[in-house]
Amino acid sequence: MWQALFIDRDGTLGGSSEIEYPGEFEMFPCSVTALKRIKETGIPILSFTNQPGIAARHELKEEFEQELKMFGFDGVYICPHEERERCGCRKPEIGMLKEAAADRGLDLTKCAVIGDRWKDMLAGKKAGCTTVLVRTGAGESEWQKNRMNLEGTVDYVAEDLQEATRWLLNSPQRVLEEILDGANTEARFVLGIDGLSRSGKSTIVSEIEEWLKGKGVTHQIFHIDDHIVERKARYDTGHEEWFEYYSLQWDRKRLREEFFMKLKEGCVDVRLPFYDGELDTVTERQVRLPDKGLIIVEGVFLQREEWREAFDGILFLDCPRERRLLRESEETQLKLEKFRNRYWKAEEYYLDTVRPIKRADWVIPT
After folding, report:
1. Which of 174, 219, 345, 360 has its CA 20 to 30 A from that of 314?
2. Keyword Cytoplasm: yes or no (predicted)?
């Protein structure tokens, strides 16, 4: 649970990238929804905003504070100084964040910053916060200007405050707590971690596994890519490349009968094909399943019709294509023709026909 969320005002909450005074300022409709959602969690909402030029007008500062509190903010931190004054509170300095931490006893590493300016991100990172850049206000131009420097400064890029809130509140641990609250782990609960290539499935599964170990929950994890077929059965078959990837990468019927349906039926012994990438061979192994606890299956296209019914719940990781491509190696990124013909067409088919985001029980933007 976050100890607090720090939200910038102009361009993030509403208005524009320029300063708009109280009475003129209007929140984006999505921001109204986002603040309501945060309020439901009980997480404190704090404003931290640069407002140069109001130092000589105490009543104007009070108007800013009153308006933001009327919007639903629990605390307001304002820097009234001009940049030339070189104060310690004007973003990208961290004075406002440190003041809030002192006022409220916050651990800033357990807080998040949301803003549309690079200086918001720099302040957040210097203070140890999680950072989210929104593309409203100045955010789009800031993202374009600094996109090559995102790593280590920005944890997530969101379209607006609503998406930023959704990402921050739907952490894997939070979702897993919700899953386990509703799951009967005295019996068997089968959870699918679905998502397209490079959406972060393996990373989240590793985080979940550590969390489960800490909680002492019986669990077993399967990666669907451990069970693909030999290359000759999925390349140069005469079919279109996207079809080879979507339909021939796995022996779908066999996996349904010998794995997925046995998961559903509560079987404890299954015989599975395991692929060796170095030798390009498949060997069968006997696998024993726990009769209770959590069984996690991670992989792409898990919600296809022949597999979906085996799961008690599906978590889908939603990640834009451009972000997923950047997670590939530089060498792999150059193979755009293969991505277009093989992977992206298959992904588009899955998204259009299966509609995995809509059908999933939980969705985490990554």
Report:
1. 345
2. yes
Residues 161 and 271 in one domain: no
**Model pLDDT for residues 237-257, shown as the tens digit of each residue:** 999 999 999 999 999 999 999
Closest CA to 342 of 214, 220, 244, 198: 244
CA distance linking residue 263 with residue 242, whole number of Å: 29
Helix (H) or strand (E) holding 342, with range, is none
Degrees (nearest 5) of the Cα angle 52, 58, 62?
A: 90
Assess contact for 340 and 240: CB atoms under 8 A: no
Cα–Cα distance, 297 to 185 (Å, whole number): 16
Q: Which of 117, 152, 169 is the last residue of a domain?
A: 169
Query: What is the extent of the structural domain holding 140?
Result: 4-169
For 139-184, the pLDDT digits (tens) are 999 988 887 777 678 988 899 999 999 888 876 666 776 777 666 6
Residue 219 contacts by C-beta under 8 Å, 6 or more apart in sequence?
A: 209, 212, 290, 293, 294, 295, 296
Q: Are 229 and 344 contained in the same domain? A: yes
Structural domains counted in the chain: 2
Same domain, 320 and 222: yes
Question: Which residue, of 108, 138, 169, is where some domain finishes?
Answer: 169
